[in-house]
Amino acid sequence: MDIFRVLTRGASLKKSKDLITDYSLPTQNKKTNKNDSRKDKLLDNQVSKEIDFFKTNKFKRKLDELNEEEQQDEDHDDINNNNNNDDDDGNIKPKKITTEDEAKKLRKLNKSKITGDDIPLPIGSFHDLISRFEMNKQLLLNLEQSGFDLPTAIQSETIPISLFNRDLIACAPTGSGKTLAFLIPLLQQIIQLKGNGTGNRSNTLKGLIISPTKELSKQIYEVALKLSKNLNINVTLLTKSLNSKYKNKIITKNKYELIITTPLRLIDLMNNLDSTDVINFQNLKFLIMDEADKLFDKNFILQTDEILSKIVNGNSNLQKLMFSATIPSNIEEIAKSIMINPLRVIIGHKEAANESIEQKLIYTGNEEGKLLAIRQLIQQGEFKPPIIIFLQSITRAKALYNELLYDNLRVEVLHSEKTQYQRDQIIENFKKGEIWCLICTDVLSRGLDFKKINLVINYDVPLTSQDYVHRIGRTGRGGQIGKALTLYTNQDNQLIKPILNVMKQNNIELQPWLEKLVEEKTSKRKKIKKNIERKEISTVPKIVKQKKRQKLEMIQASKIRKENE
Ligand SMILES: Nc1ncnc2c1ncn2[C@@H]1O[C@H](COP(=O)(O)OP(=O)(O)OP(=O)(O)O)[C@@H](O)[C@H]1O
Description:
GO terms for molecular function: ATP binding; hydrolase activity; RNA binding; RNA helicase activity. The protein is an alpha/beta fold. The protein has helices at residues 3-11, 34-46, 59-70, 100-110, 128-133, 137-145, 153-163, 178-196, 214-227, 240-245, 263-271, 292-295, 301-311, 329-337, 367-379, 394-404, 420-432, 465-472, 497-505, 512-519, 542-564, and strands at 112-115, 168-171, 207-210, 235-237, 258-261, 286-290, 319-324, 343-347, 357-365, 387-390, 411-414, 437-440, 455-458, 482-489.
């Protein structure tokens, strides 16, 4: 199979109406002729199951396979009580999953592993939710109007689990639809609570979503807003300005039923209450932790712990749900300790990257070689925007930005030293296509859903396999095909080992010497040095820098002289 053509074809960027950028640099988009499109169709059919992780648009194939396996036609009512499974266009309509046997087959195809007691049946379509859970029709309409017709693998499993009020640990690949997997049931549950009036006055806080970064929280908020259109649910994003507008009384004054926040913003609110105010979290029914493993890592654990101690303790009715593309076992243990009889959903391999991402390592020898590699990609027409480049520190991100600024690439740099306004502007411009190449630190590695990112480059090797999975997960989302390149030098021999393991999980063949590195016994390996000290990113020779510095010093000295005269 011409896998390379399949992958590169999917990665080429069609200009969309709202993209105002001409992406013709560095290579022109070829016009496709009829033959090409026929070839593309053929290639489409060749896309193997392995790179077809995002099952949404492939439901037809999935059902074909289901039918094949069954080797008999099972007539189930579809959403319209139509016994004929074909619609007018000849597409097969999704089935209802009504038996354990059907569930088993669906799970096999989706590579879903569910563990725990009393596992509910998955859903075969969103319409399944009407008969099984009296799903709100407006919510369903909002879903359809946003263009979501069929549930992805993670949504099939976790929506019923959430609606049965079960605690949940869910792990599914990047870009596979986890946001809707928690938002759909959450909104439905809030509607139900409001409807039956079980002591929940209309605006009391019912649902809380915590995510590690402001950007991700904002993104979840935007999806939640769209999905809750005409549902009469008050949703907000906790921000500094909102906290000050309501004088930290957003929760105590029952302003919103669903709040989306970062840990820091929530703690800020809780710590700045008036002495007379006490937040009562007893009405809070749903706690969702997105990028849960991040929220439990060393940078967030203290904040998370503080929040959980105030929210979870004594609230036995609180449903707790955790989502991420990576959940290491130690974090899972901590998560379980605050849950009651949780269910565990794993789609695919727990520590693998999304299978629709082509992963490559590029050995550059030394630091200077990395810049050369980037320039070579540009020359060879491989640097096709939109592109995200990750580096290990703010200083390095700025330095690379300064280097690429003059390559006519419409490049920008984003890191935590930028103001929130600048960060929002950069993201907006990147989404619009005004910025082609976004250079950043790990601040953007988690959760962000940029459409059709063509290429992710790890200019610096990420420190953990989880960082790697999330960074490269900015491409290959929502059923698209993506490409990820990781540049490495002699310094990185140990650091790439976790990456090699991820690649192995994804069944990517490694060169023999890399394979050897993976197999090397732990005792033989040097201790992995985190935060590698790297040579400065610059193509300016030392002598030129020295002269520049001297010139600058002379100008400053002359200024001082003039001031003193
Ligand atoms: N059922 C669906 N049908 C079609 N597209 C979907 C569906 N569910 C989600 N998507 C789209 O898939 C993309 C990725 O979804 P989302 O951002 O929720 O991924 P994720 O699993 O949370 O990724 P990450 O692990 O990186 O946070 C989004 O653009 C979203 O709109």
